[in-house]
Amino acid sequence: MGALAIKNVTKRFGDTHILKGIDIHIDAGQFLILVGPSGCGKSTLMNIIAGLEAPTSGEVQIGERVVNDVAPKDRDIAMVFQSYALYPTMNVRQNIAFGMETRGVPRKEQEETITRVSKMLQIDHLLDRKPGQLSGGQRQRVAMGRALARNPTLFLFDEPLSNLDAKLRVEMRTEIKQLHHRLKTTIVYVTHDQIEAMTLGDRIAVMKDGVIQQFGSPEEIYERPANLFVAGFIGSPSMNFIDCHLAEQGGDVGISLQSEGGVRFVPLLDGRRFADRLGQKVILGVRPEQIEVAEEGEPALECKVHLTEPTGPDTMIFTQINGKEVIARVHPRAAGRPGDSMRLKLDVRKVVLFDPQTEARLN
Amino acid sequence: MTQFNGPAQYGFAERWLPRLVLAPSFLLTLVFVYGFIAWNGYLSFTASRLLPNYEWVGLAQYETLFANERAWVAVKNLFIFGGLFIGGGMAMGILLAVFLDQKIRGEGVLRTLYLYPMALSFIVTGTAWKWMLNPGLGLEKLVHDWGFTSFTFDWLVNPDMSIYTVVIAGIWQSSGFVMALFLAGLRGIDDSIIKAAQIDGASLPRIYWRIVLPALRPVFFSTLMILAHIAIKSFDLVMALTGGGPGFSSDVPATFMYASAFTRGQMGVGAASAMMMLATVAAIVVPYLYSELRGSRNA
Ligand SMILES: Nc1ncnc2c1ncn2[C@@H]1O[C@H](COP(=O)(O)OP(=O)(O)OP(=O)(O)O)[C@@H](O)[C@H]1O
Ligand SMILES: [Mg+2]
C-alpha cells in the first residue's frame, strides 16, 4: 500500500525555483531519507508534505488521499522540527499534552499517553520542567515525545539530530531506528548527514538544487550512484574520482592508470560495451575500500604513500594516481609508512565510470 | 593580589578620568533630583502657603490633603485613567502587533504610521484631540453637517465623562508604541513553534493565546511599567486637553499638585500630594527593579 506519493511537485518563491518537479513514492512502513546539501530544498519539501506550505504545482498524497487542500492538522501526521520548536512557556507534560488537548482527547487518555511516551523516551523524570531547563538531547526527546503522543500514519523528522553532539547523535540514531522497528510507522527523515542516511533509510532520495538526483535503496545509492554528485555526496571518505582515457589492449577495453611507480593497463569488466568510446575521456569512480593491497605475484600498481591516517579499524593511505590524490582504505597491518611504496589494485567489479560532460554513470 | 591588577604604572589620568567625567552629572542628579525630593519632603511638613516657609506643622498638610474632595477626585480619576489607559493601550497595541505579524503587505508603512503618535508630545496630542472632541468644532459638528442632527458627543464638556476623553487620547498616543514593543517580541519567536502548533491542530487565536503571548511575558511587564509610570505622572495631556475641567472633574494627582502648589497658594498641600505620588510610583517600581535585578543575577 502506498503511504506517501509526491507527484511532480514544484515550489517557487517569487522568481526562484526551489523545487523543480519532485517525484517520490514510498510504501507504508518505509523509512524515507531526504538527503542533500544545505539549501537544496529539503525543509521546503517537508513543509509541503506537512501542509505548512502550498506547492506551486503538483500533488501530495498521504495514504490513499490527495491532501493538497487538507489542513496540516487533518493530514494525520506528526512532525519533529530541526529546532525542536517546543512551546517555551509550557512544561514537558503540557508540551506533550497540547496537541491532545486541542483535539479534545479525554483527560484520562491524555495521562496514559503521557506516561507511555515519557517512559519510552526516558523523560518521565522531566515532566515538570520547562524546555529552558533541559539539555539539547532531552529537548530532542521531548520533541520526539510530542510527535509520538499522536499515532499518525506519517512521521516527519526534519534534521532532528543536527544540534546534538557526536556521541548523543549516535545514541539517538540507534533509538530512532529501534523506534521504527517497533512502531513500523512510515517516516520521512531529513538530514544532510550521509551516515544517518545510510544507517536509517529503507529508501534514500538524494537532492540537489531542488531536483532528486537519485531515489533508491541505500545499497543502490552507494554501489550504483546515478551521477558524480551522488557518488561524491554519499560515502566517507568520499569516492575517489580519477580522470582517465578508455583504451584497448590485447582485445580488452580498459583504462591506463599512472602512479609514481609506473603505468598499468586495467581491463574493465564487460569493457566491450565501451568500444564506441575508445580514446575518450571518462572519470573512474572508486571508493577507498575498493582499492586493496595486492597479493604477491598479482598484477598491481606501485604507489608511493604520501600520508597515512589511522582511524582505528582501518588506515587511510593517501597516494596519487593519474595526477589526482587518491585515498585507499586498508588494514592497519598492511599499511605502509609515508614515503614507502605499496602495491595496490582496484576491485574492478565495483568501480564505476562517469561521463565527464553529463556526469552520469556509464556502466 | 597585585599580579591581577594590571600594569602597576596605571596612569593617574586613566584612574581619575572616568570619575572626573561622571562627577558633574552625578552632582547635578544628586542635587536636583534627590536633593529636591528631600526638600519637597521637608516642605510637606511645613506651613508653606504661597511661598516656602519652614514652620514645622507635622502631618497637618497631609490631613488637609486627605480631607480635600478635589484630591479624592484626582485619585479616583487616576484609577479610571490609569486602568483604562494601561488596559486599553495594551489591548490595542497587542491587537495591532498581532495583525501586523500576519506578514501583510505594506507592513513597514503601517508600522511607521502607528508609531507616529509617540513622536508627538502630549501637548500636541491633547490640543489636537481637544479640537476633534470639541462639540462645536470637531466630531459632533462633522456628524451634524452630514445631517445626523440628533448625534451628540459632548464628553469633553461633560463633567461625568471628561476623564474618558483623556483616556481616548492617551490610548491613541501609546498604542503604537505598545505595538512596536510587542511586534519586536513576536518577531523573536521561532517560526517553527507556530508551525508545530498548527500541526497540533491549534487555531490561530489559540496559538497566540496559549503559546505566543505567554512567551512575551517579559515584554508585557516592561510595557506595563512604562505605561504605569506615564499614567501616574500624566500632566501635560490633561492640561492640554481639558485643563482638569470642566471644574475639577478631570483632575489627576499631577494637575492637582500643580494647582495646589503654584496657582492656589497651598504649597504645603502640593508638596504632600507630590510625596504621595512618589510613594505610589515607588510602590510599583521598587518591586519591579527588585525582581529584575534578582532575575539578572540568576541568569
Ligand atoms: N519563504 C522563503 N522565501 C524565499 N526563499 C525561501 C523561503 N524559504 C526557503 N527559501 C529558500 O529555499 C531554499 C531551500 O530552503 P530549505 O530550507 O528547504 O533548505 P534545506 O535543504 O532544508 O537546507 P538546510 O539543510 O540548510 O536545512 C533556500 O535557498 C532558501 O533560501
Ligand atoms: Mg532544512
Number of helices of chain B: 13
Which distinct ligands sit in these coordinates? adenosine-5'-triphosphate, magnesium ion
One letter per element, helices H and strands E, the order of chain A comes to: EEEHEEEHHHEHEHEEHHEEEEEEEEEEE
Radius of gyration of chain A: 25 Å
Q: Which range best describes the helical content of chain A: under 10%, 10-25%, 25-40%, 40-55%, 55-70% or over 70%? A: 10-25%
Q: How would you sum up the major sheet of chain B?
A: none
Give the count of structural domains of chain A.
2
Organism (chain A): Chitiniphilus eburneus
Keywords (chain A): ATP-binding, Cell membrane, Membrane, Nucleotide-binding, Transport
GO molecular function, one term (chain A): ABC-type transporter activity
Pfam family, one (chain A): ABC_tran
Notes on the structure:
Chain B: The chain crosses the membrane at residues 20-42, 78-100, 112-132, 163-186, 207-232, 267-290. The complex is a heterodimer of chains A (363) and B (299). Chain A has 363 residues and is an alpha+beta fold. Chain A is 23% helix and 35% strand. Chain A is built from 8 helices and 21 strands. In chain A, the strands form 5 sheets. Chain A has a 6-stranded mixed β-sheet with strand order 6-7-8-3-9-10, with helices on both faces. In chain A, a hairpin with a 2-residue loop joins strand 18 and strand 19. Chain A is elongated. By secondary structure, chain B is mainly alpha-helical. Chain B folds into 2 domains: 1-43, no CATH class; 62-298, MetI-like (MetI-like fold). Chain B is built from 13 helices and no strands. Chain B has helices at 12-43, 60-67, 69-100, 107-119, 122-133, 139-146, 162-187, 191-199, 204-215, 217-232, 236-241, 253-263, 267-298. In chain B, helix 3 (69-100) runs parallel beside helix 7 (162-187) and helix 3 runs antiparallel to helix 10 (217-232). The longest helix of chain B has 32 residues, at 12-43. The radius of gyration of chain B is 25 Å and the shape is globular. The two termini of chain B are 29 Å apart. Chains A and B meet through strand 6 and helix 2 of A and helix 8 and helix 9 of B. Residues 42-43, 82, 159 of chain A line the site of magnesium ion (MG). Adenosine-5'-triphosphate is lined by residues 13, 18, 38-44, 192 of chain A.
